[in-house]
Specification:
Chain lengths: 102, 626
């Protein structure tokens, strides 16, 4: 397998991260915001993998598994919250949930 | 018998207490009985204790009542100390005080605050007695402030008039300046000796300090500050002429006979300190000499009967200070006693005139009262003669002559002091008889409907007799040579040391002073009876000097400019709370920031994320750049 240069891997990770970030910033729908956050997480994971491959260390992959686990937990909590918000407010607009100024 | 001493201050205190608590509920007769009776009984007990004390041949008697405070070695006792000096003072206070109380029952008869007046007056007598009987300086200070308080209350007795209230405040504040100096002096004394007991301090001081020691001089000067404030001497004399706003008996008791001489008492009592501090003692003499001249000139120009007497009091206390300053301790006490008699008499007489003329103070509107008020006239004339030191028959002659002679002859005296005192004597007799001639002689300018009653006349007569015969207890070497008072005082106050080889000059000095006092009378006679138009002409040609004298040498204006104006200016400035503005500013800024930051917490999730992102970018950029 040809060596992928580290730069291209990191550039891909950055692009993904920025795309996710823009998604979080621009979307009003909470589900889309959650998806965007997932993209950002995976971008970070990708950066770890690339770094691990570069120095031939297992740490990068270990870190990625951590991120994956955390993402799963986050999604489960996030989806539960989204259900509750929808139940309460009858909408998925994140700006609608500003009642508590939190 | 001597143990009864505690009753002397206790009775007036009790009287004051009863009058304060029940004064409005009991009848006027009852108020008068309690007010006058308490002081009268105190006077009787004083005479009783005094005779026992003199015949017992002890030099002092100490009566410990109770221990006042006991903290870490500081244990001033509540103790009375009787010695010849305090005996003379309590005699004058209770006896003259009693006469003035009797007089007041008639003088204040129609006043609404009858019981209040006697309550204050009794409280004053009590405080004054504590002042002179105190065994330690703390108790003395209690009495000192007590009389200050009563003076304040009584000057402002007719408080409906704003001027009276102002005069009361002025008296209180000006004397407070001196009292502060005195308090600092007491702290320094305590620091040096660890006690405030007067006998101990007087005994230890010569061992601790040498003559002229710096600490001793400072303490003596601070004590002098207190004395100057209380006794209305230069530069704190401005309050006394205004204090005449009070009722006349108050002026007689507080501002002539007793309280204003508290400074004389203090200096005489602490004479050891002043002997250790020649500089301070010299200051006493200089203050006395300058004050007696300045006040004398001012008295010459006043037209308010009571203000003449007020300036005259300042001047006469100047004589006492002068005597203290040249080391003639007993001469000062002698003059204090005689002055208490004749000045109380003059004030009471003036009060009677003012009352009978329906509160007319201007003596140029009186005139010709000689025939209409014979009793007041004769007693007033005796008082005036005593003040002017008319030779041989009046007590004032003997006491003032004593001071004049000792000012010249004492080791610490000098010719300048003597000349000042001599010239002062001339002015004294001039302004005194100006007052007599203008008030009682000439044409009648007012109508008198009734005469003074017995309650007013009797005290006047008693005081007049005392003003005549009181002087015979101390006669000069040239006439009789009797020294009852000096002998009595000899255990407490050292006798004056004369310059060598000077004793033969005494008769010459006396002759000069006699001539001067008589010529003062003639001057007044010439100007105010023979050529009544003359004073007006002189007045208009020397208007500037007249104005300066009339306003008491402009001290009021001076203090107005250097103390009162800046203070008022400062307080008006501070009215807007400039310092507070800083704190209000901080509050406003915090409030503004709060509003701004509260905006950012709007509950819109995307704004928060934006904040996070911007923050992250900012930190990353910072990391990259640095």
């Amino acid at each position: 397998m040809d060596d992928v240069p580290i730069e291209s891997g990191l550039v891909l990770a950055s692009i993904l991260f920025i795309l996710g970030m823009i998604g979080v910033l621009t979307r009003r729908n909470i589900i889309f915001m959650l998806i965007s956050v997932e993209i950002m997480l995976n971008a970070a994971g990708l950066a770890f993998i690339v770094a691990g491959a570069k120095w031939a260390q297992a740490d990068g992959q270990v870190m990625f598994i951590f991120i994956l686990t955390m993402a799963a937990a986050e999604v489960s909590v996030g989806l539960a919250l989204i259900l509750q918000i929808y139940h309460q407010l009858k909408t998925l607009d994140s700006d609608a949930a500003s009642k508590m100024n939190g | 018998m001597m143990d009864l001493l505690w009753l002397v201050p206790a009775l007036p205190f009790l009287g004051a207490l009863v009058l304060i608590l029940f004064g409005t509920r009991i009848s006027r007769t009852m108020v008068a009985v309690i007010g006058v009776g308490s002081v009268g009984l105190a006077a009787l007990i004083t005479i009783l204790v005094g005779t026992t004390f003199i015949s017992s041949s002890e030099s002092s008697f100490n009566l410990l009542l109770w221990s006042w405070i006991d903290v870490a070695g500081f244990s001033p006792s509540f103790a009375l100390h009787l010695d010849p000096l305090s005996l003379i003072f309590i005699f004058v206070i209770t006896f003259v005080g009693f006469l003035i109380h009797v007089y007041s029952t008639a003088f204040m008869a129609g006043d609404e605050g009858f019981s209040r007046f006697f309550a204050y007056l009794n409280l004053f007598v009590c405080s004054m007695l504590f002042l002179v009987l105190a065994d330690n300086l703390l108790l003395l200070y209690l009495g000192w402030e007590g009389v200050g308080l009563c003076s304040f209350l009584l000057i402002g007795f007719w408080y409906e008039d704003k001027n009276n209230g102002d005069a009361a405040r002025k008296a209180f504040i000006v004397t407070r300046v001196g009292d502060t100096a005195m308090a600092i002096g007491l702290f320094m004394l305590f620091d040096a000796f660890g006690t405030l007991a007067i006998p101990e301090i007087l005994a230890q001081a010569p061992q601790v300090w040498t003559v002229g020691s710096q600490t001793a001089v400072i303490i003596a000067l601070l004590l002098l500050g207190g004395a100057v404030g209380k006794s209305a001497q230069l530069p704190l004399q401005t309050w006394l002429p205004d204090a005449m706003a009070g009722p006349s008996p108050v002026s007689a008791l507080i501002h002539a006979a007793t309280m204003v001489t508290a400074g004389v008492y203090l200096i005489a009592r602490m004479h050891v300190m002043f002997e250790l501090a020649p500089l301070a003692q010299q200051c006493v003499a200089i203050i006395g000499a300058v004050t007696l001249l300045l006040a004398g000139f001012s008295a010459l120009t006043q037209y308010d009967l009571k203000r003449v007497l007020a300036y005259s009091t300042i001047s006469q206390i100047g004589y006492m200070f002068l005597a203290l300053g040249v080391g003639a301790w007993s001469a000062a006490v002698f003059h204090f006693m005689i002055h208490a008699f004749f000045k109380a008499l003059l004030f009471l007489g003036a009060g009677a005139v003012i009352l009978l003329l329906h509160h007319e103070h201007d003596m140029f509107k009186m005139g010709g009262l000689r025939k209409k008020l014979p009793a007041v006239y004769w007693t007033f004339l005796i008082g005036a003669a005593s003040l002017a030191a008319i030779p041989f028959i009046t007590a004032g002659f003997y006491s003032k002559d004593n001071i004049l002679w000792l000012t010249f002859a004492s080791e610490k005296g000098n010719v300048w002091f003597f000349l000042a005192a001599l010239f002062g004597a001339f002015i004294t007799s001039a302004y005194t008889f100006r007052m007599v001639f203008v008030t009682f002689f000439g044409e009648a300018k007012s109508t008198v409907t009734h005469r003074a009653g017995n309650l007013m006349t009797v005290p006047l007569v008693v005081l007049a007799i005392l003003s005549l015969v009181g002087g015979f207890i101390e006669l000069p070497h040239t006439i009789g040579h009797l020294e009852l008072l000096s002998d009595l005082l000899s255990p407490v106050l050292p006798s004056v040391i004369l310059r060598p080889g000077i004793a033969s000059a005494e008769w010459a000095i006396q002759s000069i002073s006699i001539i001067l006092s008589l010529s003062g009378v003639y001057l007044a006679y010439y100007f105010y009876l023979k050529k009544p138009a003359l004073p007006g002409k002189i007045k208009s040609s020397f208007a500037g000097i007249h104005h300066i004298w009339f306003t008491g040498w402009g001290f009021d204006v001076l203090y107005q400019t250097i103390f009162i104006r800046p203070f008022v200016w400062l307080s008006t400035m501070y009215k807007g709370d400039p310092v507070d503005k800083c704190y209000t500013g901080i509050v406003l800024l915090t409030d503004f920031m709060h509003r701004v930051f509260a905006k950012t917490q709007g509950g819109i999730l995307r704004w928060y994320i934006m904040g996070l992102v911007i923050g992250a970018i900012f930190i990353l950029t910072l990391g990259l750049l640095l």
